[in-house]
Amino acid sequence: MELTDLRNRIDQLDDELLNILNERMELVKQVGELKRSSQAIIYRPEREKQILDRLEKRNTGLLTRQAIDAIFFEIFAVSRNLELPERISYLGPEGSFTHQAAESRFGGMSEYLVLPTIHSVFESVETGRAKFGVVPIENNQEGIVVETVDYLRDKNLSIVAEVLLQVHFTFASQSDSLRDIRRIYSKDIAFRQCGKFIGEYLEGLGIELIAVESTSKAAKLASEEPDAAAICSSISARLYGVPILFDNIEDSDQNKTRFLILAKDFSNVKSTDDKTTIIANLPNTNRPGVLYEFLKDFNDRGINLTKIESRPMRGESTFRYWFLVEFLGHYEDPAAQEIMHKYGTHLKWLGSYVRVS
Ligand SMILES: C=C(O[C@@H]1C=C(C(=O)O)C=C[C@H]1O)C(=O)O
């Protein structure tokens, strides 16, 4: 077929797509009305997953699962906006990896509130200024983001969903020569993840490494200072117009960050593949065997623990700890219920949500 014929055919298909999408939106609007009359929750990640899984099974064409996810997450986001526009806050500035994670679930059309700290994201959701908040919780090379873990315990928010993002860093500077660079801005965690690159290319040049709150703040600073560079995401380098000198400078190409979507008083319906996060404030953690017995309770019930993180009880003179615990399954599963009942107020349930692997 000739180019014009191909394009004419594409135009025809786009017309059909537009009609179908509008037809879909009519149905979504009705779902929205039903939900509003029963005060039901608009965002249903488990339903969205069900749709994506079903489409993947039916798919016989060129689209990969990743492509289906990208297209349909955007459709879901537009749908939810039609049901009820909801504001989403995230750890900024614009162009941060958290921004990217937020957009992957809430699309380009949602109203975003860009906030400077993890604390302010929690607060915006607590006070209702945003319906959802997006924060990083861990990186698979670096471990947890302690601020997020600590606020999960101290504040009263629920986990709605998790998002996994492959992290790539770029080295961006207005300077053409590494010798003219006096300082590099980035987040402390990013400096550590790009240790090999820094060792190979920048050792001995007397360059100062300056940690700032986020990699996009680093890009902004590098856009203002010609003798500075940033280790940042490629979106933020582009957003602030800083030329990228090296791409993908991270030590490991397995580098992934996990983000949480938070909301107030939220609970998901069970899906086929859930994960649950709880906080454990076990009594008498100094008595031998307390933690062992707690973990054994999971093992005895065949529950797969995926994470345990210990954090110090602040404000005490001794060394005592509380734990962030994650396991596969939903909080409503009988085995999980048994454990929740056994430990009562010593456990705080943060959420059960669709697992992303
Ligand atoms: C339309 C609904 O609301 C939202 C939008 C969805 C969609 O566009 O298919 C799916 C789940 C919800 O997040 C629904 O619950 O079915």
From TrEMBL:
What region holds the ACT domain? Answer: 279-357
Which Pfam families does its entry note?
Answer: ACT, CM_2, PDT
> EC?
4.2.1.51, 5.4.99.5
Domain (Prephenate dehydratase) ranges: 87-264
Q: Which InterPro entries match?
A: ACT-like_dom_sf, ACT_dom, Chor_mutase/pphenate_deHydtase, Chorismate_II_sf, CM_dom_sf, CM_II_prokaryot, G/b/e-P-prot_chorismate_mutase, Preph_deHydtase
Signal sequence span is: none
Spell out where the chain crosses the membrane: none
Sorted keywords for this record are:
Amino-acid biosynthesis, Aromatic amino acid biosynthesis, Coiled coil, Cytoplasm, Isomerase, Lyase, Multifunctional enzyme, Phenylalanine biosynthesis
List each copy of the Chorismate mutase domain by range.
1-87
Recorded catalytic reaction(s): these are:
prephenate + H(+) = 3-phenylpyruvate + CO2 + H2O; chorismate = prephenate
Q: Which cellular compartments is it found in?
A: Cytoplasm
Q: What is this protein called?
A: Bifunctional chorismate mutase/prephenate dehydratase
Q: What is the organism field in this record?
A: Dyadobacter sandarakinus
Gene expressing this chain: pheA
